[in-house]
Design a protein that fits this description.
By secondary structure, the chain is mainly alpha-helical. The protein folds into three domains: about 25-105, Dna Ligase, domain 1 (2-Layer Sandwich); about 110-190, no CATH class; about 190-300, no CATH class. The protein is built from 14 helices and six strands. It has helices spanning about 5-30, 50-60, 65-75, 95-105, 120-125, 135-140, 145-150, 175-190, 190-200, 205-215, 225-235, 245-250, 290-295, 320-335, and strands spanning about 40-45, 85-90, 110, 165-170, 305, 315-320. Strands 1-2 form a two-stranded antiparallel ribbon. A two-stranded antiparallel ribbon has the order 3-4. The chain has a two-stranded antiparallel ribbon with strand order 5-6. β5 and β6 form a beta hairpin. The longest helix is centred in the first third of the chain and has 28 residues, at about 5-30. The radius of gyration is 31 Å and the shape is elongated. The N and C termini lie far apart (about 110 Å).
Length: about 350
């Protein structure tokens, strides 16, 4: 066999091997990493390429990660890992997933901030949804210097956060979180709401303080404007608010099942049985519906309220003390029939 033929055969073999390898690589790098439904992986500081791949396999045991490993190795991903929340989409190729991870293309998460009674509950609520730990959040929310720079105090911090659902990055910092919450609070208090508060003769803080009381008084959304109107009537007449929730707040610690006469003697600026007007600050974080209930309170002549005797959670309202006492007697009889 001539040298020319040998070279032709060798060349053909090389081309065949190269083509076969090219086809193999094409198949490997075009096979989707995952074909199950979209899922999220959460990457924390300290995670490694190996632990991230393991997280993908944990979410989808059938995930094909060989080509992804090669791409991440080629990009030196181990030395350039970005924390955050990432979505591995069904059908995404190894290159698409590698681009996402190495480029830090995070998926925003929904941060749902609930109305809570205490700062501690608020901290736990937030930390359970983002990467920041509760200790870090607590340190910032109790930092007197930071609060002062934002125009708040330990008492008025209840005014700083508006419970709602926000879109954020899972790995945002504590300072970025607080900055965002203050921004959303300022956005909530738009010109329309500020104008309504001014027309009522109330500041934004006073509106939120009254909202915190009515939110404790009733769990029924349709009653909130009525209860708000009742307290507005008392304020206009310079009557003591005599709101049990403020006494409970003043007592601190464990909440009593019932407010007794002895509780009404607690010495606190929050005790509205002893102090006229609104307490100095809100007694909890409040829902937007409660704030708007104050701003759009129902006009009526009610001055008193008592839980309904059917235990529905609704209240009987009265314009006179005698009517209120009659409502209270019906409720007490209903309690007595239950052995209470």
């Amino acid at each position: 066999m001539s040298l020319k033929k040998v070279l032709i055969i060798i060349t053909a073999l090389i081309l065949t091997v190269a083509a076969t390898f090219a086809v193999y690589c094409y198949k490997q790098f075009s096979i989707p990493v995952s074909v199950c439904q979209d899922y999220r992986i959460y990457i924390r500081p300290g995670d490694t390429q190996q632990s991230i791949i393991a997280g993908i396999k944990e979410s989808d045991p059938d995930a094909k990660t060989k080509a992804l490993r090669l791409l991440l190795n080629h990009r030196n991903y181990s030395n350039n890992i970005h924390s955050g929340c990432y979505t591995v989409k069904s059908g995404a190729t190894p290159k698409q997933v590698a681009d996402m991870l190495s480029g830090g293309a995070q998926t925003p998460v929904r941060l749902t901030i609930n109305s809570t009674r205490t700062v501690g509950q608020m901290i736990r609520n937030i930390s359970s949804q983002v990467m920041i730990d509760s200790v870090t959040i607590a340190n910032r929310l109790t930092d007197a210097h930071l609060l002062d720079s934002l125009g708040y105090t330990e008492a008025t911090i209840f005014c700083m956060i508006i419970p709602n659902t926000y879109e954020v990055y899972w790995n945002l910092s504590a300072d970025a979180l607080i900055k965002r919450l203050v921004k959303e609070r300022d956005r909530f208090w738009n010109e329309s709401r500020r104008s309504k508060a001014a027309s009522l003769g109330l500041t934004e803080q006073e509106v939120m303080t009254l909202a915190s009381i009515i939110e404790e008084e009733t769990a029924k959304s349709d009653e909130l404007p009525i209860v708000a109107g009742l307290y507005m009537n008392r304020l206009k007449r310079n009557m003591l608010l005599q709101a049990d929730p403020t006494v409970i707040f003043a007592l601190g610690g464990e909440r009593p099942k019932r407010v007794l006469k002895e509780h009404l003697e607690v010495n606190s600026p929050y005790n509205t049985y002893k102090n006229a007007g609104l307490p100095p600050a809100p007694i909890r974080f409040v829902n937007t519906r409660s704030i708007d209930a104050v701003l759009n309170y129902t006009r009526h002549n009610y001055l008193y309220m008592c839980a309904k005797e059917d235990f529905s959670g609704y209240h009987n309202f009265a314009t006179t003390l005698s009517q209120h006492n009659a409502n209270a007697r019906r409720y007490q009889r209903a309690l007595g029939s239950l052995g209470n």
